[in-house]
Write a structure and sequence with these properties.
The termini are far apart. This protein is an alpha+beta fold. It has two domains: about 300 residues, no CATH class; about 30 residues. β5 and β6 form a beta hairpin. Helices cover about 25% and strands about 35% of the residues. Bound molecules: zinc ion (ZN) (2 copies). The site of one zinc ion (ZN) has 8 residues, from loops.
């Protein structure tokens, strides 16, 4: 069935083998005959209007023709591979992938941040990243036992919107005065606030991976989205791509939640207060746009004291996320130190008040 695969620009021009993307040279590379080939990098075009789901565009048809959707029978990950790639194992649990029934359900990615460094560099950066973590067991910190490092492109949607919010609220501020006898008194003043706030929310990112949750994703952010380029098949050669788990509409709800938090922060930053007594806001969203991106993530697995740990790393910046072993002894002494410091402060303030 060779002729069903289009003369694809990911096959080697001299020997015809499937090429792989090599981040360290930012080119496609043929392991068979050592030929390398450039990928044309193009700037990102306009974002999509929310109403236009891009299901039937030419780009989406090409994407569906050039890729196959696979599913992991063990952990349920949905994975996309280029048709030139040989059957692959699941990037999350290494089981063999099987064909998925979602064959033509996927829309094409718009943008991609290519991997910036290779697996070998990822292992080095991983060890460096761990040195910045607190409470790691010493033995682990000295030589982290990396079992495997695997690059996956994780799907995310980026949302833009102009917003107009009407808000009302009540803020409290505490004050302390000392009278002529040296007695301290605290009192609270209140301020009613209301108004209209306009904001321009840009590239609010929502992960839509089935394996990486929003919290794990937050730990490896930021991604520098200005480095994203137009998606090309070449960038995913040799890597796995995870299919988006939630639809654009579902992710838009999450994005609006994040935007609401951002807007609330913007509004409150204009006031001086200690506590928010009440805050109500209604927001209208206009000019809503979205873009579908793939971002690079390295998944690192290792065993320590019979336990398996998984950590994720940003494939653009090398930032290492959570999921590392903690030293109970170090945490105990850290907490003890703070308890002693706070107890000390209390004792000193009681002693000085007696003066
Ligand atoms: Zn070749
Ligand atoms: Zn799996």
């Amino acid at each position: 069935m060779e002729n069903t695969v289009k003369a694809n620009d990911c096959s080697c021009p001299s020997c015809g083998a499937a090429m792989r993307y090599r981040p360290e040279i930012a080119k496609l590379f043929c392991e068979n005959c050592q030929t390398s080939k450039d990928i044309l990098c193009e700037a990102l075009t306009q974002k999509h209007d929310y109403s236009d789901m891009e299901k039937h565009s030419k780009k989406t048809r090409d994407w569906q023709e050039e890729t196959k959707n696979l599913k992991c029978p063990n952990c349920g990950a949905n994975v996309v591979l280029n048709k030139l790639q040989y059957s692959s194992s699941c990037p999350y649990c290494e089981s063999n992938l099987v064909s998925s029934d979602k064959q033509d359900e996927s829309i094409a990615p718009d943008g991609i941040i290519p991997f910036l460094f290779s697996d070998q560099d990822a292992s080095k950066k991983y060890v460096e990243g761990l040195k910045k973590k607190w409470f790691l067991p010493n033995k682990f910190k000295k030589s982290p036992p990396v079992e495997s490092i695997h690059g996956v492109y994780v799907p995310i949607f980026g949302f833009d919107s102009q917003t107009t919010s009407r808000y009302v609220g009540r803020l409290a501020k505490d004050h302390t005065t000392t009278n002529s006898k040296g007695e301290r008194r605290t009192y609270t003043t209140y301020q009613n606030i209301s108004g209209v706030h306009n904001s321009n929310q840009r590239d609010v990112l929502v992960e839509t991976s089935s394996k990486l949750n929003q919290n794990q994703f937050a730990q490896i952010q930021p991604y520098y989205m200005q480095k994203a380029v137009q998606f090309k098949q070449g960038f995913i050669m040799g890597y796995t791509v995870e299919h988006y788990q939630n639809t654009v509409a579902e992710c838009k709800k999450v994005a609006e939640q994040i935007m609401m938090e951002n807007i609330k922060r913007e509004i409150l930053s204009r006031y001086h207060y200690d506590r928010v007594v009440s805050f109500d806001m209604s927001t209208a969203y206009t000019n809503q746009k979205y873009m579908y991106y793939l971002v690079p993530v390295y998944k690192c697995d290792y065993k320590f004291k019979e336990k398996t740990y998984t950590t994720f790393m940003n494939g653009q910046t090398g930032k290492v996320g959570g999921g590392v072993p903690r030293s109970g002894v170090k945490i105990f002494f850290f907490v003890l130190m703070w308890v002693l410091i706070i107890a000390g402060i209390i004792v000193i303030s009681i002693l000085t008040q007696g003066d």
